[in-house]
Design a protein that fits this description.
six-stranded mixed sheet, alpha/beta, three-stranded parallel sheet
C-alpha cells in the first residue's frame, strides 16, 4: 500500500507518522503518546493528577510480566497497590511468537499483554501507564519521581523494569535510524524484502529475528561479538538449517555507514 509515498519519503521503518508533511514519530507509538505530543499541556495535567494520589503500600515500576505478577500478588494481600509503566506489556508487546512461556505452547506478544492487563484489572490496582520513572529517593517513605515532574510516595517499591531493544552505540546508528537501522523485524522486515540484511547479536532475540527475516529477505548475516552464540540451542539449530542465514562470531560492530 502507498508504495509511491513510501519511496518518496524514503520510509524504512513503520509506523511512520507525519504531521503537516513533517516526520512526527517513527516506530511503535500508542494513541495516548500521540495525544501527549500534540497536546502540550497533557503532561502538566497528568502531573497534577498524579502528585495528588494517596500514598501506596506497594508501588511497582514496570508493566511487563514480572510487574503484572508483582502487582497482582500485592493486591491479593489487600495492599494499596500501584503500577507505573512507560508502556504496559513492555517489550513483550513487540514479540510475535512466544514459545517458552510454561504451559502455553505458543502465543503472541499482544495477546499475552492483553491477558496480563485484563488479569491486573481484576484487582484494585492503580495502573499509571505512559509514565517514565526518572529518580528514586528514600526519606521516611520511598519517593518515585516521574518524567513529568510528579512524585509518587509508597511504603514499598518493587523494581521490574524489564528490557528494551538494545542499541549498538556506534557512530552512524542514530543517523541511520529509520533509514536502514531498525529494531523490530516484524514491523520493519517487509521493507527489506529481497535485500541483504545484517542482524547484530546472537542471543534469542537476534536469532529469532534472523529466522523471521529469512523468509522475507534475500540473505541474513548474523554478527555476534562473542565466540559462541547465546541463543537457545533449538533456535540455533533452526537458523543453521535455513539456507540463507550466515552466522559470524567474534565480529564487533564498530560503525554504520550508508548513502
Amino acid at each position: 500500500l502507498f508504495q509511491d509515498e513510501v519511496a518518496a519519503k524514503n520510509i524504512m521503518a513503520v509506523p511512520s507518522v507525519y504531521l503537516n508533511g513533517e516526520l512526527f514519530s517513527q516506530g511503535a507509538i500508542t494513541l495516548e503518546k500521540i495525544i501527549q505530543k500534540i497536546d502540550v499541556n497533557a503532561e502538566k495535567r497528568q502531573a497534577e493528577a498524579l502528585k495528588n494520589k494517596a500514598e501506596f503500600d506497594v508501588l511497582v515500576v514496570g508493566g511487563g510480566p514480572a510487574g503484572a505478577a508483582a502487582s497482582i500478588y500485592a493486591a491479593r494481600k489487600g495492599l494499596n497497590t500501584g503500577i507505573v509503566a512507560e508502556r504496559f506489556g513492555g517489550q513483550v508487546a513487540d514479540t510475535v511468537g512466544i514459545e517458552n512461556f510454561i504451559s502455553v505452547k505458543y502465543t503472541e506478544g499482544p495477546k499475552l499483554v492483553a491477558g496480563l492487563e485484563a488479569h491486573v484489572r481484576e484487582y484494585d490496582v492503580d495502573i499509571m501507564n505512559n509514565q517514565r520513572a526518572v529518580k528514586l529517593r528514600k526519606t521516611d517513605k520511598v519517593e518515585l519521581e516521574l518524567a513529568n515532574g510528579a512524585v509518587l510516595k509508597s511504603k514499598t517499591l518493587i523494581l521490574s523494569p524489564g528490557a528494551r531493544w538494545r542499541e549498538m552505540n556506534v557512530p552512524g546508528e542514530q543517523e541511520y535510524r529509520g533509514k536502514g537501522v531498525a529494531y523490530c523485524p516484524h514491523c520493519d522486515g517487509p521493507l527489506f524484502k529481497g535485500k541483504k540484511v545484517a542482524v547484530i547479536g546472537g542471543g534469542n532475540s537476534g536469532i529469532e529475528a534472523a529466522i523471521d527475516l529469512a523468509g522475507i529477505v534475500e540473505h541474513v548475516t548474523v554478527l555476534e561479538f562473542a565466540a559462541e552464540l547465546r541463543a537457545d540451542a533449538v533456535l540455533v539449530k533452526k537458523a543453521n538449517s535455513m539456507g540463507n542465514i550466515t552466522i559470524i562470531t567474534e565480529a564487533q560492530t564498530t560503525e554504520v555507514t550508508g548513502d
